[in-house]
Write a structure and sequence with these properties.
Elements (H helix, E strand, L loop, with lengths): L1 H29 L2 H22 L7 H26 L6 H20 L12 H29 L4 H26 L5 H22 L3 H7 L1 H16 L3 H16 L3 E6 L4 E6 L2 H6 L10 E5 L3 E6 L4 H4 L1 H68 L5 H32 L8 E4 H13 L6 E4 L5 E4 L1 H18 L4 E8 L2 E7 L21 H6 L7 H11 L3 E6 L5 E8 L9
Parallel strand pairs: 6-8
Antiparallel strand pairs: 1-2, 1-4, 3-4, 5-7, 8-9, 9-11, 10-11
Helix pairs in contact: 1-2, 1-7, 2-3, 3-4, 3-5, 4-5, 5-6, 6-7, 9-10, 9-13, 10-13, 13-14, 14-18, 15-16, 16-18
C-alpha cells in the first residue's frame, strides 16, 4: 500500500509539473491577463509539489525551515492567483477584491511570523491552530469563489469551453477536499494518504484537461457545434440570396462561440446582416471597434465579420474561433454565389420585362397605328382617284389627314421620349422660372378649345427650379390625361414647402379604379373601363411624366380626389440634382 501511495505521489508530481508547463506554453503563445494569472497559479502549485517532495518531513536546519516557510507562503498564493485568473474575465466587486487581497497579505505575513510549525505527530500550539484555521478559511473562500465563478460562467458557452471551465471548477473543489483531509487528520493512515493522493491526482487531471484537453475529448465535446456547422454549411450551399445566407449562417456563428452579436459588413462598410442582442447598436459601432480581445474581426472576401464574443472566448474558445474563421470564409463564397444568383435572376426578370414590354408595344403599336394608317391610306387613295372633288370635301379630307398625322407623330414622340429617358440621353438642365405663367401657357397649348374647363390656382410670385422643357412635358401630360379621362372642373395648384415644389392636377371624374392603381404608371397600360370609354390614349403619358420627375430626383404620385376624381401630384426637390445625358 505504501508503494502505491509513493507511486501516486510521483504521478502527481509529474501531473502538476505538466499542468505548469502547459499553462506557461499557453501564456507564451496567446498572452493575455488570464493566461498570465493561470501560468503564475499553476507554476506556484508545481513549485510547492516539486520542492515539497525534496524537503525532509521534519526540517531542522535553518535553510530547511526557511524553505518550508517559503513553500507555505507560495501555497497561500496559489488559490489567490487562481482567483485572479477568474477575475481576468469578469471583475469582482471592489470590496471583495480588497477583502481577499488583505486576507492573503495577512496570511503571508503570519506565515513568516509563526514561531514554530509542529512536525507530524507533535502537539499543535494555539497560535498554529489559529493560523491553520485562517489558512483553511482563506483557501476555502477563494476555492469556493473559483469553483462558483467558473461553473456559472460556463453556462451559455460553447460545449468545449463549458466543459473546460467545468473541469477547472471541479479540479479546484477536489484539491480543496484533499487539502482539508490532510489538514484535519493529525495521525493519517496509509489509506487516508492514498485518498488524499488520489484526490490530488483527480485535481491535477482536471486542471490539465481543463487547460489543454486531448483532441479526442475536444472532438467528443464539440459534437453539437459540429452539427451546427454542418447545418450552416448545408444552408449556405442552398442559399440563393444574400438574405438567405445571413439568415442561415449568423445564428450558428453566434452559438458556435457563445457570441452576443455577429455583424457582417461589406468592403464599403455597409451593413449586410446582424444577429444577436443589441445588434442594432453594436452593428452601428462595428466600424469603431477597439483592440479588444473579446471582439473578433475576421476579414472575408466580401468584407468583414465582427463577432462580440464572451470574455471567456479568447482563452477557452481558440478552436471554436478557428471554426468560425472557416465558416466565415465559406460565407464569403456563399455571398459571392448569391450575388451572382441575384444578378442572374435580375437579368432574367429584366429580360422578361423587356419581352413583355416589347409584346405590349407591338400589340399597342399595331392597335394604335392601324386606324391612322388606314385613314391616311384611304384619304390618299381617295384624293388620287378623285381629283374632281370640290374644295369643301378636299379640305375636310386634308384636315382629317393632318389630324391622323399629328396623332402618329405624338405616339412616335412619346416612344422616343421613353427610350431617351431610359438611356439617360435627355439633358436635364434646371433653371428658375415663374410657375403660373408657364402652367397657363401649357394649359392653352394642351387643352385648346377646352382651356376654359381648367382653373390655374397658382400664386403669381411662385417660382420653380426645374428643366423648363421637361416641366412642360409633365404638366402637358397631366392636363391631357385629366381632359381625356376626367371631368371638369379641373384645377391645377402649386406650392413650395418642406424643401419641395409640389404641383397637383385634380379632376372631378370617376377616378382610377382601385385595382388598377398599382399599374397606373406602367407603360402601355390602360384600365378596361378607359379603353372602352376613351379612344386615342396610348398608355404612355403617365409613364413619361413620372420618368421626367425621376430625372429631377422627384416623383409623380396619385391620390384619389374628394369626393371623387383623380389627383396627380408632381413633387420636385428645391435643388434638383444635375443629370446630363450622354
Amino acid at each position: 500500500m505504501r508503494t502505491l501511495v509513493q507511486s501516486v505521489g510521483f504521478l502527481n508530481l509529474a501531473l502538476f509539473t505538466g499542468v505548469a508547463i502547459v499553462a506557461l506554453v499557453q501564456w507564451r503563445r496567446s498572452g493575455g491577463r488570464a493566461g498570465l494569472w493561470a501560468a503564475l497559479a499553476f507554476v506556484t502549485l508545481a513549485a510547492v509539489v516539486d520542492a515539497g517532495g525534496a524537503l525532509p518531513e521534519n526540517p531542522e536546519r535553518d535553510w530547511e525551515i526557511v524553505a518550508q516557510r517559503v513553500l507555505i507562503a507560495v501555497l497561500v498564493l496559489f488559490p489567490y492567483l487562481l482567483y485572479r485568473f477568474t477575475t481576468a474575465f469578469r471583475q469582482a466587486t471592489l470590496k471583495l477584491e480588497r477583502f481577499l487581497g488583505l486576507m492573503t497579505l495577512v496570511l503571508l505575513v503570519w506565515t513568516f511570523a509563526l514561531r514554530d510549525i509542529p512536525n507530524e505527530g507533535e502537539p499543535r500550539p494555539g497560535a498554529f491552530t489559529a493560523y491553520l484555521i485562517l489558512f483553511l478559511a482563506h483557501w476555502a473562500i477563494l476555492a469556493l469563489a473559483v469553483t462558483v465563478r467558473l461553473w456559472r460562467a460556463g453556462r451559455g458557452q460553447p460545449s468545449v469551453a463549458r466543459r473546460r471551465m467545468q473541469l477547472l471548477s471541479i479540479a479546484s473543489f477536489t484539491l480543496t477536499i484533499a487539502l482539508f483531509l490532510a489538514a484535519f487528520i493529525s495521525d493519517p493512515s496509509v489509506r487516508l494518504e492514498l485518498a488524499v493522493s488520489l484526490f490530488s491526482t483527480a485535481s491535477a487531471l482536471g486542471f490539465l484537461f481543463g487547460l489543454a484537453p486531448p483532441a479526442i475529448l475536444r472532438l467528443l465535446w464539440r459534437r453539437p457545434e459540429q452539427l451546427r456547422l454542418q447545418e450552416a454549411i448545408a444552408g449556405l450551399m442552398g442559399a440563393a440570396s444574400r438574405d438567405e445566407v445571413v439568415r442561415d449562417v449568423l445564428p450558428p456563428m453566434a452559438r458556435m462561440v457563445g457570441a452576443r452579436t455577429v455583424v457582417l459588413r461589406d468592403h464599403e462598410g455597409r451593413l449586410v446582416g446582424a444577429y444577436g442582442a443589441a445588434s442594432d447598436a453594436q452593428a452601428e459601432a462595428a466600424d469603431r471597434v477597439e483592440d479588444r480581445p473579446d471582439v473578433l474581426q475576421i476579414p472575408l472576401e466580401i468584407g468583414t465579420l465582427t463577432v462580440w464574443t464572451s470574455p471567456y472566448a479568447p482563452f477557452f474558445g481558440t478552436d471554436e474561433t478557428q471554426l468560425l474563421r472557416t465558416l466565415g470564409a465559406l460565407t464569403g463564397l456563399a455571398l459571392d454565389r448569391a450575388r451572382l444568383f441575384e444578378g442572374e435572376r435580375d437579368a432574367r426578370e429584366a429580360l422578361e420585362r423587356a419581352d413583355k414590354l416589347k409584346t405590349n408595344f407591338v400589340a399597342l403599336a399595331a392597335h394604335e397605328l392601324r386606324t391612322p394608317v388606314a385613314t391616311i391610306d384611304g384619304i390618299i387613295q381617295t384624293l388620287d382617284r378623285h381629283p374632281e372633288l370640290d374644295g369643301d370635301r378636299r379640305r375636310l379630307l386634308e384636315r382629317t389627314l393632318s389630324q391622323q398625322g399629328t396623332h402618329m407623330r405624338r405616339l412616335v414622340d412619346q416612344l422616343l421620349d421613353l427610350s431617351r429617358l431610359d438611356a439617360d440621353a435627355i439633358s436635364i438642365e434646371p433653371q428658375s422660372f415663374p410657375v403660373r405663367e408657364r402652367v397657363e401657357s401649357v394649359v392653352r397649348a394642351a387643352a385648346g378649345e377646352r382651356a376654359g374647363e381648367i382653373e390655374v390656382d397658382v400664386d403669381e410670385r411662385l417660382a420653380a427650379v426645374a428643366d423648363p422643357t421637361a416641366f412642360e412635358r409633365i404638366v402637358s401630360n397631366l392636363v391631357t390625361n385629366a381632359l381625356r379621362y376626367g371631368q371638369a372642373p379641373i384645377v391645377v395648384r402649386a406650392e413650395q414647402r418642406d424643401r419641395h415644389f409640389r404641383l397637383a392636377v385634380e379632376d372631378s371624374g370617376p377616378g382610377v379604379p382601385a385595382e388598377f392603381v398599382p399599374n397606373l404608371f406602367e407603360r402601355f397600360t390602360r384600365s378596361r373601363t378607359t379603353r372602352d370609354r376613351v379612344v386615342g390614349g396610348t398608355g404612355l403619358g403617365l409613364a413619361i411624366a413620372r420618368s421626367y420627375a425621376n430625372a429631377h430626383g422627384g416623383d409623380l404620385l396619385y391620390h384619389s380626389a374628394q369626393p371623387h376624381g383623380a389627383r396627380f401630384q408632381l413633387v420636385l426637390p428645391v435643388e434638383p440634382p444635375a443629370r446630363n445625358g450622354g
